[in-house]
Amino acid sequence: MAIAFLIFLAALLLLVISHEAGHFFAARAFGIKVEEFGFGIPPRIFGLWRDKRGTLFSLNLLPFGGFVKIFGEEGKEVSNPQSFGSKPAWARASVLISGVLANVFLAYILFVFVSGLGVMEAVSEDGAALYPDAKITILEVAPNSPAESAGIQIGDKVGGFKKIEGLQKFLKENAGKSVVLNISRGGKELFIEASPRKTPPEGEGALGVALGWTRIKKAPWMLAPLEGAKLTGRAVWGTISGFYWLAKDFLAQRPPEVEVAGPVGIFNITASAIGAGWGFLLTLLGLLSINLAIINIIPFPGLDGGRLFFVLLEVVRGKRISPKTSALAHSLGLMILIALMLAVTYRDIAKIF
């Protein structure tokens, strides 16, 4: 668990710091002063060093992210050529969108490695006969299910069955009893004991898992950049579609079909991905990076998309929004976002207990 937590923290830092690095290098490119590049979230522990351009690189108390403090970000100091507010709208928009692009680029790099190392690909049960390495795979583990209690993880391969229907029949026939499953995980063979339920919740099944046939698809390293681009495109489209259905369900006031996870939920998913191997973990990081990019581009105050919307509004109006109004709107937006994150985190913890 300790190793899983450290990997989770490292992954979170990688995602956030890459996003902030996008803003940092874009601001530098346009001659905008960056006052501070923080590793972690304040309060500040101490300053690591200050470079020749006056940027303080700091280490902060909460190791869950990072930030970049840009001079004149709220539109102040417009007379100072090093101020964010002094730059034309297109330059400010470029700085704002650079964090999103940095996350997409990080996802692309990760997916290039995944393509070369081997990416899990879903195949039909009929098509599985064409691939010697195709296995029945655990695609999802329900919270508080027999599978979770037994330590079964996402990505585990179940041996000894030629069809999913055969495995499901075996579990149903042995409901209420103890069974031993032959599991392959990360190249190791395990024998895991579990107790299928007689009366499982609707849609979960006796063991509480979703099953599917998968194989490992590897691309030659020369073609990995192309395959990585394809995976990035699919991830972007899939994430946008997920947010669309989430918004649609919210407006229709019905339970969401798309699952939402906060930091606690993401930690649990990361812990499962670690056991499934590097390919699975890198795929997860790539998907999280895309999610961070899409969330940040949403035109909501406090997010990069909200600030970008203000810049576009300025272009349409032909008049700048006052720094006071901008600061107030983004502060309120940030408070709402923090409240939403706390609500999702509470739900994630409630699921565990």
UniProtKB/TrEMBL annotation:
The chain crosses the membrane at residues 93-114, 276-298, 327-346. Residues 8-340 form the Peptidase M50 domain. It holds the Pfam family Peptidase_M50. GO terms for biological process: proteolysis. InterPro entries: PDZ_sf (IPR036034), Pept_M50_Zn (IPR004387), Peptidase_M50 (IPR008915). Belongs to the peptidase M50B family. PANTHER family: MEMBRANE METALLOPROTEASE ARASP2, CHLOROPLASTIC-RELATED (PTHR42837:SF2), REGULATOR OF SIGMA-E PROTEASE RSEP (PTHR42837). This is Peptidase M50 domain-containing protein.
